[in-house]
Design goal:
412 residues; alpha+beta; Double Stranded RNA Binding Domain; DNA polymerase, domain 1; hpI Integrase, Chain A; 3 domains; 4-stranded antiparallel beta sheet; 3-stranded antiparallel beta sheet
């Protein structure tokens, strides 16, 4: 039942906080000390959030409803009211400062991004751009000023980061033009003003002899048994590192020799994940060698949620650094091999072995550009991929030799 002026005025404090709801997420919170605070509870990006709308009696019920309506209008337009307010408060120039526009842009577009991408872009703004131009009105920012900021990043040797920061700056200024707060996107004038970033593929080993050395070293890895199993599965299944280390036992059917991964754990846009939540997006056929490793691993971690539980907390998977550190412990540098590099290894050698690209790409779970078809084809070419994965595992076995000295011994 909606609130009335009389009910708001006469409500008495209790021993605990009280919440009197007016509808649509607007409520009055009455504290034990007698404070009466207007709040708006809403959901944005799948998360529950709250913002303060003022204190009674300074803000009357009528005024609280007006503020509530404004916040709901922002929400309907895809803007997080909390982020929009934070942007306005953080700026000495109101809603026209670079930070205000940037946070508004981020709040509007971030619901369609993955959580990691959302955090990455916000972190890039806060680390590289806000310290220098946060309070600058967007209509006053000129190309030389932006270039000066980018040069500071470049001076630290972050050649790829400076290009990404410039691109990000351009997106925000373009948004400022679209929303009438700037006349032009001056970042576009800086095309060619900074040295091109040198594209660097994830380090990988593709020479058959060196692959054999690496596999022998993994089989003899002296560290954690769980880490060794993860390293053994990495070249066999060549998934993305995050997909591998966060693997859950509930996803596996060892009888059918399949690993079914839902869209929630794949590299996809947040929008696609929301639309297809819970759907199987990728099937990994399990070769005999992988089944043997999984059976052994199940004896140790089968009672856990994750295949590779953390050493300190069994309810969480191993960290990003665990497998990387294991490779470094084996003597491999980051310029020689990364965990992601197992994907490039498999792609290169499988093409050399004569397997068609469409099977390899499907097994690498590279996104299908035809989005409608991609929704329905997670099982596409499954039988052919089963044969390919078994042939790949047998090939890797052929590269290993018990007579070859361990890579740990060779590098010691």
């Amino acid at each position: 039942m909606p609130l009335s002026d009389i009910s708001v005025r006469n409500v008495k404090p209790g021993i605990r906080n009280q919440r009197l709801f007016d509808g649509g997420g607007l409520y009055l919170e009455v504290t034990p000390s007698g404070g009466k605070l207007w709040r708006y509870k809403y959901r944005f990006g799948g998360k529950e959030k709250r913002i303060a709308l003022g204190a009674y009696p300074e803000i009357s019920l009528k005024e609280a409803r007006i503020r509530h309506a404004e916040a709901r209008k922002q929400l309907a337009n895809g803007v997080d009211p909390g982020e929009a307010r934070k942007a306005a408060k953080s700026s000495g120039q109101g809603g026209d400062s670079f930070e205000a526009v940037a946070r508004e842009w981020h709040a509007i577009f971030s619901p369609s991004w993955s959580e990691s991408h959302r955090k990455k872009l916000l972190g890039r703004l806060e680390l590289y751009l806000f310290p220098w131009i946060a309070r600058r009105p967007v209509h006053e920012i000129a190309a030389p000023e932006i270039l000066g900021v980018i040069r500071k990043i470049e001076a630290k040797g972050h050649l790829e980061t400076d290009h990404r920061a410039l691109e990000l700056c351009g997106q925000i200024l373009r948004f400022a033009v679209q929303t009438g707060r700037a006349e032009r996107n001056c970042a576009a004038d800086l095309k060619g003003a900074i040295p091109p970033a040198i594209s660097k593929r994830m380090a990988s080993i593709t020479d058959p002899v060196q692959i054999g050395h690496l596999l022998d070293g993994i089989d003899r890895y002296p560290g954690s048994f769980i880490t060794r199993c993860a390293l053994q599965l990495a070249p066999l299944l060549f998934l993305r590192p995050g997909e591998l280390r966060k693997a859950e036992w509930s996803e596996f059917n060892l009888v059918q020799a399949e690993w079914r991964i839902t869209i929630d754990r794949m590299k996809r846009s947040q929008q696609e994940k929301e639309a297809r939540r819970g759907e199987v997006a990728h099937i990994v056929p399990l070769c005999r060698q992988a089944i043997d490793i999984l059976n052994d691993l199940h004896m140790l971690s089968g009672q856990c949620r994750y295949l590779f539980p953390g050493l300190r907390n069994k309810d969480r998977p191993i960290s990003d650094a665990t497998l990387t550190n294991a490779l470094r412990r084996m003597g491999y540098t980051g310029d020689e091999i990364t965990v992601h590099g197992f994907r490039h290894m498999a792609s290169t050698r499988l093409h050399e072995m004569g397997f068609p690209s469409h099977l390899i790409e499907k097994q690498l779970s590279h996104g299908d550009r035809n989005r409608i078809r991609a929704v329905y084809n997670h099982a596409e070419y499954l039988q052919d991929r089963r044969k390919m994965m078994q042939a790949w595992a047998d090939y890797l076995d052929s590269l290993k030799s018990e007579k070859r000295p361990s890579i740990l011994q060779e590098r010691s």
